[in-house]
Model the fold of this input.
Amino acid sequence: MGRKLLLEHIDVPSIETFDVYRKNGGYRSVEKALKTMSPEEVVEEVKKANLKGRGGAGFPTGLKWSFLAKPEGVPRYLLCNADESEPGTFKDRYLMEKIPHLLIEGMIVSSYALGSNLSYIYIRGEYMWVLEILEKAIAEAYAKGFLGKNILGSGFDLDLRVAPGGGAYICGEETALIESLEGKRGNPRIKPPFPAVKGLWGCPTVVNNVESLATVVPIINDGAEEYTKLGTDASNGTKLISACGNVTRGGVYEIELGISVEEFIYGDEWCRGIANNKKIKALVPGGSSVPILPAHLITKTAAGENRLMSYESLADGGFASGSMLGSGGFIVFDEDQCIVRNTWNFARFYAHESCGQCSPCREGTGWMEKVLHRLENGKGNMRDIELLADINKKIEGNTICPLGDAAAWPVAAAIRHFREEFEWHVTHPEDAVKGNYGLLKGITV
Amino acid sequence: MKIEVTQKSRPVLSAEKMAEIQGVISQFPEGKSKSAVIRILHIVEEEAGGWLSPDTMDMVAEILNIQPIEVYEVATFYTMFNLNPVGKYIFEVCRTGPCMLVGSDNIIEYIENKLDVKVGGTTADGMFTLKTAECLGACGYGPMLQCGKHYHEHLTPAKVDELIDACRKGEIKANF
Done:
């Protein structure tokens, strides 16, 4: 049983209420930070903890904080990115729904560190019931003096608000999120200027993921030194993993970084193996944007080492034979799944979610979707496979925001590892419509 | 059946709703009230029977003292907003990868057959609109659909039947 930092009290009845949360050690980090630490010391502690952003990109949170510009007389803002929309990812929803005060506590401490007196949680519009849970919890925190003016007599003021989106994956990109919070279409901004200099309403702004902000709580409570004892050298602490697809027991799990992928998939404490006693065919370990791994690269790396649930081990081998931890959206495919169909499905997702600003992404995602659709439906030809690779190269790196890359990578990886299956769709068009190409060794129609 | 677009194209807001809208505006600093537009659109859409007519959007522009185009461009960008009349209940079935792996296609087909409606359409009696949605963040609990604010997860044909019955009996909050 690994140690839990975020979900330790998740099963305590009524943990969503202030009183129960407080009785279980809640809001200690606010007392500690506001009464005994300077804002700079809080930033330093988070830096020392080497916390990598938990939204997907893995950029160090403390470093991001240290970039924040602090011009005299200009407000600064902390925004929580709760626009969780990456297919396979549902951990932030779980955390906010079950233990909303943890996020609020993390936001108070983080706002103090950054000097934000007005912070927002931007939550995807479909999570409207979670928004209501958060607002209820925020009202409690105000009533108990943890939000508002002069919190705990420290002289620090903070107003915390929640704002919903309206259904747009792109708003998880931080500059699109800012645009949306300004009441506009979610078109990402050209950087620089970065939000740390010019963000919400032109003011210096930090945008952090829900889990990153929640993790600030144990870091401040226990200190960075204790925190870094958990995990591996390069991946400190714990991570929420949302397991889904063809596993026996999907759900949100908090793991200590560095446990083996094999243990996570087959262990009793976690996913309990592949559903219906089937074999595993593929894994997307970090949300739909990260490269897919074929069966032989899931539990072992190309070098034959055990594959671990850590930033470095999942990335081992680069894009040639590795993937990424990403958002922790862990999608498992059993032997009956069609890789071409799934690649098409993801391509359709990105085509649907492209904001339309940059031509390579707007047009390219649509073309990929169309080409994959005809391959999947037995109407493709061999050149289509090269065409996909070509479109891919023309999108990647040529767009304002990373949505283009996110759309290109899964297609490239699927072709890299499952080319035979794509070719089979061309050579066996009728079978491709009726059935699926099974595991690499056999065909099940 | 074509749904009548006469009444409710511009909702009459109660004093309570107006206060709620004022509350949303007050969450943003002086001069930044435009930030409230998305949440206000959610509120008025609910009041207007589940969709936003140009009239309704103009009303939002007046409330926020911004140009109508600033509301239209937002309403047309975000997929949650309906720009055409909808049924009393909207089923939005997630169709993205993780849900597809566990059978969302079958659920969509089941609902299409059961209600005799295609994705994007509304049943002849105006009761149900069927839509698909991209990832709704319930991947571990699929197949799933959203109806109103609620998620219905681990769907099976039997659970879909129950939900449809509950809607028909009026046990679930309707759009109008």
User: Anything to note?
Assistant: Residues 1-7 of chain B have pLDDT under 50 and may be disordered.
